[in-house]
Specification:
Layout (H helix, E strand, L loop, with lengths): L8 H13 L9 H21 L9 H32 L4 H11 L9 H13 L22 H10 L7 H6 L12 H7 L1 E8 L5 E5 L14 H11 L2 H18 L13 H6 L4 H8 L4 H10 L6 H16 L17 H12 L5 H7 L6 H4 L18 H35 L4 H20 L3 H14 L28 H7 L3 H4 L6 H8 L16 H6 L9 H18 L1 H14 L1 E6 L1 H6 L12 E5 L7 H10 L3 E6 L2 H15 L6 H54 L22 E8 L3 E7 L5 E6 L10 H21 L3 E6 L3 H19 L12 E6 L1 H7 L2 H6 L5 H14 L1 H7 L21 H19 L1 E2 H6 L15 H14 L15 H7 L3 E2 L26 H16 L7 H13 L1 H5 L3 H7 L6 H12 L14 H9 L11 E9 L3 E6 L4 E5 L21 E10 L4 E5 L2 H5 L2 H4 L17 H14 L16 H8 L7 E5 L6 E9 L2 E10 L6 H5 L4 E4 L2 E3 L2 H20 L9 H14 L5 E6 L6 E7 L4 E9 L2 E4 L2 E3 ...
Parallel strand pairs: 6-9, 9-10, 11-12, 15-17
Antiparallel strand pairs: 1-2, 3-4, 3-5, 6-7, 7-8, 13-14, 13-16, 14-15, 16-17, 18-19, 19-20, 20-21, 21-22, 23-24, 24-25, 25-26, 26-27, 28-29
Helix pairs in contact: 1-2, 2-3, 14-15, 14-18, 18-19, 18-20, 19-20, 21-25, 23-25, 23-26, 25-30, 26-30, 29-30, 30-37, 33-35, 35-36, 41-42, 41-45
């Protein structure tokens, strides 16, 4: 080795890993290779010493050689062992290729490069040869070039930025030899790695098909910078865009100097980063081409549009037909047909395709040339010369969408025709002359059908017919003759259909015997041709004909006939004219019906989202005009309803009869009848088996498309309402200019809970932040001195804040009810300002208004990437407040801010059902709305240069897009101002784009140009397009010369003076009659342009948006509460939490913070006891119905009465679908409903992964059934319906009496679902903790069962119900009047509890005895033995019982609302069981809204299961009841997630299995 070469530990490890990864394993290693390896180990072993940190000094070669010989003898074995150990470790260190890539992306780890052994040896030999020539430090590494290797700095760069050594990436990619490092990836990955879709190649369906490209893989170690690194770079260094641009310019300069290979941004940054910043080569290409950007994007999918007159004429006819057919349904109103002229559509298409004019340009400047396209949009324009309003040009956008569909249709038809030609050429040499003639006829028919197809469906029909007769699988049938087609791009995977099997078996000849071919039949049934001659029947019977075609595949005539009928039916079902005929009948007459499934019948109640579609009967397709079908689809997917789409029976019968009339012969012979029978079967198979099911699928797709179109228009309409609102105007400017100078100074306030705190932000008239104030103590309500002082300090700070900045308006984000108090606090501050310091309050603040603002959009801005770029140092709540104020100043610009690459605007929830729309569908509508609004409002260039956020709408200007707009913005910012529209040509705009955009870009003295003395053309401050400047100047000159009696001159100064004159004297223009002026100038064809010019000369860029109006009371209410009319309205069922209870009413709070009032009259049907303090406790959750809403006071009136909860009349007040028809005959009785609920519960039963002799994966019902024939004391542990963290112990107490006990699991590892299903590490019953189920059995169940059996065997225990025991004791008392008789019995009402009954004189008395593992609990004392309990009872029978209730009051204690928090192991009724409720109780509070059963416990919870004994009346809070602190036992698990807790005690003791069980 090189004695003076020093390697660091890390470098040597890398080298060792690279060397050893190459070595073969096991038997793959040849013996000679093993010898070579041993030699290498000798050499490499010497390197190990250097790795240990020793430095080998420069010594004599002889000395070193001698030392090495001595060392080799002793250390050779150790070195080999050490080397072999490392190799074994390395062999086990093998990962997937994907894992290596993940490691590379996240931690910088790189898979060592795979090298061949010969290169390794060369490297080692070279190192030996250079021994003594190089002296590298530990910061250098020797490489094959003989030059200094990678330095430590380079190594750090490599680990941080993934830089790679070796030749440049492009050089590697361009080499012809394959790369060895990818050789171990696997053949499958190699085969699919280069599957690239080529847009120009299509399959037989007209879809793009994949084609393999030349394998030019790039190295997996391609350098790249992750998005996380980019974000970090942004935080540290600033704007990423600027970084990319600087890097790009550096690369350009590098290339110009010619110092190396070509370098691109793609080599240094991830594609997603470049794509988001529009820095890819494709983006550069779009920027450079002088075509409107949105047009270019559209043409990427449609291809370049045709510009010849014939094509445009054909398209205009097609679009007109589509409009007339109702393809755009929102334009067809009742009694009003859209009057659109074909010539106007033609000119509109010509403007787009030939002249490359964008939609906004056509709408503004070419109105008179396609007038009919605008008439329906302006029904209220009685006087077109008055101020226009902002228009959403729906019809123009609809035509644009139809244009795109037409171009895609033509592209697909062209691609299919090309495919058909190639495929037919292949087919021509396969068959004989007869078949060839038939194929030629079929091909001509298909070509003709394709040519006339006018929709995707019709093209699909043609394609289906072609693939039926020319299946792709037949291409390579004859391998010898068609070898040349083996690699054809049209080759498809082989597949055999029943039709092709029949055809190859020659059954097509039998199929032709049936009579008319599919095409002839289609022409007849669609009445395109008339029957000219009678159909002749074959003289032979069908069986006789079929017998000649039997074969191995079809062994008898019946099989042959079945195959032939199948062929004929399939051909008919694939015939385009037949499908077109059936489609028209189906779409016009089909009806939709829905009915609920078993689950849906239980789940869908009157308040459910699907209530209106639960029962629909025969609703025609044509009546689906909204998004109802989307709800039907969703309900069907959730398996809550069943949907049928079919023809009415009368139409169906008529359709089949018509088919029979045209397909059957009129013959009367026996043979003719047999053939007609075959034909009838063919028609039935074709229509019922193939055509009508196919049409039903198409109808579903059509309904989905219609519903989404309707929903999209609703979404667009809501967005239009948001962005078409003018900025808030200062009061003194209400009747003056609508310019940006009129924008108010805004104080925006966002309420904060403390972290963050309530924040005030002051914005100037241009939306820039002037000041920020945090005032967290402003809304304090505390009465202590400290709180009062803090509040006073904040009030003073707000006063100073407002005094310093003098806002025109204050906007307060409405997020919750705390904002009401905050608004009062701000008003109080303003009042004090005016009262105490009137001089400090400027005229701007006279009558300052405080308005509520919606924080939905500001919240999106707060969390957006753009806010971090625009307001980088500010906190989140400040960003939110800035957006709140800016939206008030300029709603359009603020909305456009969220339309960047991240498209945060899509998270703005505008309509309830928008989740049915895809992000792409929504953004296409967003773009449409924003383009229309932005171009009609215009954009002030100079103002936006000074205030970046105002540039946001630039991408929606006509002709521009995000790429061109970003480029233009950068150029304009560099110029700092612009003084004439023509200068825009110097900022990267091509001529066509300039023509499209210039009229909407406003150039005036604003921003940096405000103080400039440079001349600015007044016409540049109008919407008048430069192409019409001469017309405007002529109009102004005519008025100017008429006023000043001057000669007709064309001097430029005079023209400028004329324009100034009319701008300063707008009354002269207002009095101008445009009609008369146009006639005098012979410019009748320019009337619209003249009107537009007149309006702009009066006031340039007048704001056409609707004026801002403050939110009304309803809007404020829904903003503050966060509710909507759908979620909060009269009749809605809501949850309310009791906050304060008074005898006459209860004060509750809803989830939204609204106050709810519940009066005693509305609490219960029971009028006997109206004191609510005895029935309700604070914190209790009630299910209530909203009786009325007081929006002004932000409170609602509630009702808990059962009759109100069950009353659906308020729901039925809604307009039900006229086709809603409830099938009352199918109503299930209560028993059937209970059965379905039981089945549903069983369906949702989740088994557990627990193995134990006592554990069973069964439900509560199954557990009780299993224990029914067992002895008392038998038990089962089963899953709990409360969730995967609970188990339930079901114990048989007595015949027909079962108790259920919760076992809480703890210490679960929630790593995955499997771990959740396993048993927890700890088990808890009450306060007792157990390690496993065995311990539960030993320490808990067994002692309990022992005491249970002791009680059941006790001499004083008696069978029977409480009444039967009482009667038995009375008899015993009569026999022994002097004795106090007593006995123990089972409590059927409270399983797990015993009743001690005794008679002192004549009436029985009852006390409860609790059963516990430790013994029996009686009067708060625990007894291990019954005899001791009896002795205590006998001694203390006369003791006063402080809280000893009667059995009636004990029964009344059962209905507790919340789970008990009693002592260890409290027991109670099973939540899995639901039983009948008692009269007069509060039934179904918590479960009624879920469609629960009516026969439940008065508390809304299930009854304890009891096989015998009566059920007791009583509601909570009656005489003798107890608080929840004295709970006796709580329920086990509940199938409906309900819990009950029971308290029954005697002498103050916990009753039943309470406190101990």
């Amino acid at each position: 080795m090189a004695g003076n070469t020093i390697l660091s530990d890390e470098e040597d490890e890398i080298e060792v890993e690279e060397d050893e990864r190459e070595e073969p394993e096991g038997e793959d290693v040849a013996p000679e290779d093993r010898d070579d390896e041993d030699d290498e180990e000798d050499e490499e072993g010497q390197d190990e010493y250097e790795k240990d940190g020793f430095i080998v000094d420069d010594i004599d070669e002889d000395e070193q050689h001698g030392e090495e010989e001595d060392r080799m003898d002793s250390d050779e074995g150790r070195q080999r062992k050490k080397k072999r150990k490392k190799r074994e470790s390395e062999k086990n260190y093998v990962l997937d290729e994907d894992d290596y890539e993940l490691l590379q992306d996240n931690v910088g780890f790189r898979r060592p490069k795979v090298e061949s052994k010969k290169f390794k040896r060369l490297k080692k030999a070279r190192a030996d040869a250079d021994d003594g020539q190089s002296g590298f430090s530990d910061e250098e590494e020797y490489d094959m070039t003989g030059k200094g290797g990678r330095s430590a700095e380079d190594k750090i760069k490599r680990s941080l930025f993934d830089d790679d050594e070796g030749p440049p990436l492009e050089d590697i990619a361009g080499e012809d030899q394959p790369e060895e490092e990818d050789g171990d990836i696997g053949e499958e990955e190699d085969e699919m790695a280069d599957f690239i879709v080529d847009e120009e190649e299509v399959d037989e369906h007209g879809e793009p098909t994949g084609r393999r490209k030349v394998n030019r893989k790039k190295s997996r170690q391609a350098p790249g910078i992750s998005s996380t690194a980019i974000q970090e770079a942004h935080d540290i260094f600033g704007d990423v865009d600027e970084l990319l641009r600087q890097r790009k310019s550096e690369i350009s300069r590098y290339d110009e100097r010619g110092e190396g290979r070509e370098r691109r941004l793609e080599d240094e940054f991830e594609p997603i980063i470049l794509s988001e910043k529009y820095m890819t080569e494709k983006d550069d290409h779009i920027r450079e081409i002088d075509i409107p950007e949105r047009m270019q994007i559209s043409e990427e999918s449609t291809g370049p549009p045709p510009t010849d007159a014939i094509s445009i004429s054909d398209e205009s006819i097609w679009i007109l037909n589509q409009l007339g057919m109702g393809t755009v349904p929102f334009f067809r109103k009742e009694g009003h047909e859209l009057a659109v002229d074909k010539g106007d559509i033609y000119r509109f298409l010509e403007f787009m395709h030939v002249q490359k004019l964008d939609v906004p340009f056509i709408a503004m400047y070419r109105k008179e040339e396609c007038r009919s396209l605008f008439e329906d949009q302006e029904p209220q324009d009685n006087n077109p010369e008055e101020k226009p309003m902002l228009r959403w040009h729906k019809l123009l956008w609809a035509i644009l969408e139809l244009d795109r569909k037409w171009l895609l249709l033509q592209k697909r038809k062209s691609a299919l025709q090309s495919y058909y030609n190639n495929r037919f050429e292949q087919e021509r040499s396969i068959y004989d002359e007869t078949r060839l003639h038939l194929n030629q006829k079929l091909f001509d028919s298909i070509t003709k059908s394709l040519k006339v197809a006018e929709s995707e469906r019709e093209i699909d029909d043609v394609d289906a017919k072609f693939n039926l007769h020319f299946p792709p699988a037949d291409v390579a049938v004859d391998e010898g003759r068609f070898e040349r087609h083996k690699n054809s791009q049209f080759k498809r995977p082989k597949r055999k259909s029943q039709y092709s099997i029949c055809s190859k078996s020659g059954l097509w000849e039998v199929a032709t015997k049936f009579g008319y071919g599919s095409e002839e039949f289609g022409l007849l049934i669609s009445l395109e041709e008339m029957r000219t001659d009678e159909l002749e029947d074959a003289k032979e019977t069908p069986e006789e004909v079929a017998s000649r075609f039997t074969c191995a595949m079809f062994e008898d005539p019946q099989a042959v006939l079945r195959g032939a009928r199948h062929m004929a039916a399939v051909e008919i079902s694939c015939e385009p004219c037949v499908r077109r005929h059936v489609r028209s009948i189906f779409m016009d007459n089909a009806v939709v019906s829905t009915n609920p499934t078993a689950d849906g019948n239980v789940s869908i109640d009157s308040r459910h989202q699907f209530a209106g579609i639960k029962w629909l009967k025969n609703k025609p397709l044509t009546k689906f005009n909204d998004a109802q079908w989307l709800l039907i689809q969703k309900a069907e997917e959730e398996k809550l309803i069943q949907v049928s789409v079919k023809l009415p029976s009368s139409i169906h019968v008529q359709l089949i009869n018509d088919a029979h009339n045209y397909y059957l012969s009129d013959g009367v012979s026996k043979s003719a009848q047999l053939w007609n029978e075959q034909r009838k079967q063919i028609i039935n198979d074709a229509f019922d088996g193939l055509l009508l099911p196919s049409m039903a699928k198409e109808a579903r797709a059509l309904l989905t498309s219609r519903a989404k179109n309707w929903l999209l228009m609703e979404y667009g309409g809501r967005l239009w309402d948001k962005v078409s609102v003018a900025p808030y105007q200062k009061k003194e400017n209400d009747n003056s200019s609508d310019d940006y100078e009129a924008a108010p100074r805004v104080m925006a306030c966002c309420w904060g809970p403390g972290k963050p705190t309530t924040t005030f932000v002051m914005l100037d008239s241009y939306g820039e932040v002037l000041d920020v104030l945090y005032a967290g103590s402003l809304s304090l309500r505390g009465q202590n001195a400290n709180d009062q002082q803090r509040k006073k300090n904040d009030q003073q700070r707000v006063v100073k804040f407002m005094t310093d900045h003098q806002p025109h308006v204050a906007v307060l984000g409405a997020v919750n009810l705390s904002c009401l108090k905050l608004k009062e606090d701000i008003f109080e501050i303003i009042f004090k300002m005016v009262e105490d310091n009137p001089r400090d309050v400027g005229h701007e603040m006279d009558g300052i208004n405080i308005i509520y603002g919606d924080e939905t959009l500001p919240h999106l801005y707060e969390n957006s990437r753009i806010s971090s770029e625009q307001l980088q140092p500010q906190t989140g709540i400040v960003k939110r407040a800035v957006a709140l104020g800016r939206y008030l100043q300029n709603p359009l610009a603020m909305t456009a801010t969220l339309c960047g690459p991240a498209k945060e605007i899509l998270s703005w929830k505008l309509i309830p059902l928008e989740n049915f729309l895809t992000p792409d569908e929504k953004y296409s509508m967003v773009e449409q709305i924003m383009v229309d609004a932005t171009n009609q409002v215009g954009l002030d260039i100079n103002l936006a240069i000074s205030h970046e956020w105002l540039f946001a709408p630039l991408q929606f200007i006509s002709g521009l897009g995000p790429r061109k707009a970003a480029s233009l913005q950068r150029s304009l910012v560099r110029a700092s101002s612009i003084y004439t529209r023509k200068d825009l040509l110097n900022h990267g705009l091509g001529k066509k784009v300039f023509v499209n955009a210039v009229g909407f870009l406003r150039v005036r003295r604003s921003g940096n140009a405000a103080s400039s003395s440079q001349f600015i053309d007044l016409l540049d401050d109008t919407r008048i397009h430069p192409e019409s400047y001469s017309l405007a100047q002529e109009l102004a000159k005519d008025i100017y010369t008429a006023d000043d009696d001057q000669d007709d001159v064309n001097d430029e100064d005079v023209l400028e003076m004329a324009i100034e004159h009319v701008r300063e004297n707008p009354d002269r223009l207002k009095s101008l009659k445009v009609d008369e002026y146009a006639k005098s100038k012979k410019r009748e064809n320019k009337k619209d342009t003249l009107i537009h010019t007149k309006l702009e000369l009066i006031q340039g860029f007048q704001d056409w948006r609707k004026p801002y109006t403050e939110p009304n009371q309803d809007e404020e209410f829904y903003m503050i509460t966060g509710e909507t009319e759908e979620t909060l309205s009269e009749g809605k069922i809501v949850q309310a939490t009791v906050r304060r209870v008074q005898p006459q009413k209860a004060i509750c709070v809803l989830d939204s913070g609204l106050t709810g009032l519940l009066s005693k009259e509305d609490y219960s049907e029971d009028r006997r006891d109206n004191d609510l303090t005895e029935k309700l406790v604070e914190g209790e959750i009630l299910t209530c119905k909203i009786k009325s809403i007081q929006k002004a006071r932000h409170q609602v009136f509630l009702s808990c009465k059962e009759s109100d909860l069950r009353d659906d009349r308020s729901q039925n007040n809604k307009a039900l679908d006229p086709y809603y028809h409830e099938d009352r005959d199918n109503f299930d009785n209560e028993k059937e409903k209970a059965r379905k609920a039981k089945e549903l519960a069983k369906k949702h039963f989740k088994p557990r992964m627990i193995v134990h002799p006592r554990f069973q994966n069964i439900t509560a019902d199954e557990a009780m059934e299993m224990l029914s024939d067992k002895e008392p004391g038998e038990s089962i542990i089963r899953p709990s319906s409360r969730g995967h963290s609970y188990l339930t112990l079901t114990l048989k107490i007595y015949d027909g009496v079962y108790a259920h006990k919760d076992i809480i699991e703890g210490g679960k590892e929630n790593k995955d679902f499997t771990s959740i299903l396993r048993l927890g590490k700890t088990l808890k019953i009450g306060d007792d903790v157990f390690e496993d189920l065995d311990e539960v059995i030993d320490r808990y169940v067994d002692p309990l069962v022992t005491h249970l059996k002791t009680m059941l065997a006790y001499r004083k225990f008696r069978d029977g119900s409480k009444a039967e025991v009482d009667e038995s004791l009375r008899k015993e008392k009569n026999e022994n009047p002097s004795r106090i008789v007593y006995s123990f019995g089972i409590s059927y009402e409270h399983p797990g509890t015993f009743i001690l009954t005794y008679i002192r004189s004549s009436n029985p008395h009852h006390e409860y005895v609790g059963l516990y593992p430790k013994g029996f609990k009686f009067r708060k004392k625990m007894f291990e033995e019954i005899d001791r309990l009896v002795a205590y009872f006998q001694r203390h029978i006369d003791d006063p019982q402080d809280a000893g209730p009667s059995i009636r009051s004990v029964a009344a204690m059962v209905p507790m609302r919340s789970p008990a928090t009693g002592g260890s192991g409290s027991w109670g009724p099973s939540g899995d069981r639901e039983r009948t409720s008692t009269p007069g109780s509060r039934t179904g509070r918590s479960d009624y809204r879920n469609g629960g059963s009516h026969d439940e416990h008065p508390s809304g919870l299930p009854r304890p299961y009891s096989g015998g004994g009566g059920r007791r009346r009583g509601g909570r809070g009656g005489r003798g009841s107890y608080s929840s602190r004295d709970v006796g036992f709580s329920g086990g698990d509940s199938g409906s997630s309900k819990r009950s807790s029971v308290q029954s005690q005697t002498g103050g003791s916990g009753a039943g299995w309470g406190s101990g069980w």
